[in-house]
Amino acid sequence: MTTPFPDHDAEPTRMQVRIRYSHLGVLAALSPAYFGMVMATGIVSLAANQLAMTTLAHGLFWLNIVLYGVLWVLTVVRAIRYPRLFFGDMFDHLQGWGFFTSVAASGILGTQFVVLARNDAVAWVLWVTAVVLWIGLTYIIFTALFIKTHKPALKRGINGGWLLAVVAAQSIAALSVLLADHLGHPYKLEMNFFALSMWLWGGMLYIWMVSLIFYRDTFFRFAPDDLVPPYWINMGAMAISSLVGALLIINAPGAPYLASLLPFIKGFTIFYWATGTWWIPLLVVLELWRHVYKHFPVQYDALYWGAVFPLGMYAASTYQMDVAMGFGFMAIVGRIFLYMALVAWVTTFLAWLVKLWRWLCVRSVGQQQK
């Protein structure tokens, strides 16, 4: 499979990618990470439901169903009309990780169907979709990146977006735990074991990837345009990992081997949450450095959904961990971050609507001139 760019060490930046694709139209330039919109909307909906904002939670749930369906239609059409660009993105170090948003979006929407709609049938369909996508994308993308003859230097080829592969695995683990709670034995036991395995695999993958990301950011030049919004996934990947840990703790009474592992699960759940918490002040300082000190312009990009999602996930995971551990003092933290996530979601959604409106206006003018 050929790629739209020469396969050499100096791969193009995201801006160059967007410019290269723009002359073919919006569909050709559609980011594979656009399912991040579904991820962000879904987790804000679930966090709102935890804090008894049921009307908001259900409103975002129905919106998410529409967004998920539209994005799949656009993705399939893009793959058919522009296969070279589509698969070129999949095998690209800077773009390939975006495809994992489709896995996470399926898992999170499935979780919404379980929690908000009490509809396990649709949730199972989304679970199968997520698992099939995860298997295919994980082994196709990573195999392609392993065997590529020419690869970018580390400083150009990796960023926080790679951790979406971790989020994808953990979203499946979270949905698996919830579905397991509605199963009888022996399937309940097996589903919980699958969820535990995905949880541990995602944690190990995080350790591998974040080590490279930390090394890259510490020992190579870090420019404002290097701080892409998905760097917030550094925190978000740990937040969803702590959420799954909390769900496993709650499920322990129905799975004896989980009960025997409770000290281990509780320890790693707090470890994941603490690691995610550590990232927050650093990411805030880096954003201030980028936009205030370096005057980097703020304009809508699909990748900003990758910054909204971690805020919502941190809110949901903190609240769920507080319940699972019986702490009783962390719920306020979850509420604060939910409000922050809501502000971020509304801002990003309005920016997307403005961009969509401008595109429609330009297209309308172009058709009139013809």
Provide a brief overview of the structure.
By secondary structure, the chain is mainly alpha-helical. It has helices at residues 14-22, 36-50, 54-81, 83-90, 100-115, 120-147, 154-157, 164-180, 187-219, 233-251, 256-260, 262-293, 305-325, 331-369. The protein has a single domain, classed as Glycosyltransferase (Alpha/alpha barrel), CATH 1.50.10.150.
Plain-language structure description:
There is one protein chain. By secondary structure, the protein is mainly α. The chain has one domain: Glycosyltransferase. Helix content is 74%, strand content 0%. The protein contains 14 helices and no strands. Helix 13 packs antiparallel against helix 14. The longest helix has 39 residues. It is globular, with a radius of gyration of 20 Å. The two termini are 36 Å apart.
CATH topology: Glycosyltransferase
The structure class reads mainly alpha
Number of strands: 0
Number of helix segments?
14
The CATH class = Mainly Alpha
Secondary structure elements and their pairing?
Elements (H helix, E strand, L loop, with lengths): L13 H9 L13 H15 L3 H28 L1 H8 L9 H16 L4 H28 L6 H4 L6 H17 L6 H33 L13 H19 L4 H5 L1 H32 L11 H21 L5 H39 L1
